[in-house]
Amino acid sequence: MSVRRTRRARIVRLVLALSAAALVVVVAVVVVPLLLPAGPRPLFQLPVACGETWQLSTYPGHDDYDVDMYPTAGSAWGRPVLASYAGTVTEAGINGSLGGRTPDNPNGPKGRGGGYLVKIDHGGRWQTQYLHLLEVPLVRKGQQVVQGEQIGRVGSTGNSSAPHLHYEQRRNRQKVETHFDGQASGITHDDAEYTVKRKSGNCA
Questions:
Q1: Which residues form the M23ase beta-sheet core domain (predicted)?
Q2: pLDDT band for position 150 (50/70/90)?
Q3: What is the pLDDT of residues 10-61, one digit of tens each?
């Protein structure tokens, strides 16, 4: 066997060994955590100001477990959006396109997707998402937030017909029924329109 072939064989073996090691790392870091059971559900609070009453709703085609939130009094535009529990921001930016709906032009063109959004990891395999924010989020990826900390303002960016907060709770990255202050919201499917009112206990 020539020297060149010997070197080539060694390189191939090295590449295969490194690929196998990389695969092991991917499995350990990505796959294994997904198989672990989630921890206890955090005591999530409504992601809005302490003491305010908001309407939680869904409608056919909205997707199971998704919650749209509207204040029961006053305009929704620009209302503070708060972290519903402490955690680490994993995404803060734009999903899809923003569109052109603003307080000065509420009937402007719709965008696509979630518009300005924030995602927070709360540990124990629990996450929350906040969509259609008015403007650039007030937090950044990697930032630690406490419960009740303002992360943005209610808007109508993305695929949104009117100012509201689209909110999700996720366990192991899968959407689940939202709970607030230990109480289930009752929104589990989008087979029919459903609304319920809740008062915020996000008073940290």
A1: 78-176
A2: very high
A3: 777 777 767 766 676 665 555 555 567 889 999 999 999 999 999 999 999 8
Tokens of 196: 């319920």
Do 59 and 92 touch, CB atoms closer than 8 A?
no
- Cβ–Cβ contacts within 10 Å for residue 155, how many? 26
According to DSSP, residue 154 is labeled B
pLDDT digits (tens, 9 = 90+) for 96-105: 999 999 999 9
Q: Which two tokens stand for residue 88?
A: 């680490």
In this structure, the chain runs to a length of 204
Q: Which is it for the CA torsion 113, 186, 137, 49, positive or negative?
A: positive
Task: Look up residue 183 and give its two tokens.
Answer: 């109480």
- Sequence-distant (≥ 6) Cβ neighbours of residue 178 within 8 angstroms: 44, 56, 65, 67, 167, 168, 169, 184, 185, 187
When pLDDT is averaged across residues 165-172 and rounded to a whole number, the result is: 98
The identity of residue 129, as a single letter, is Q
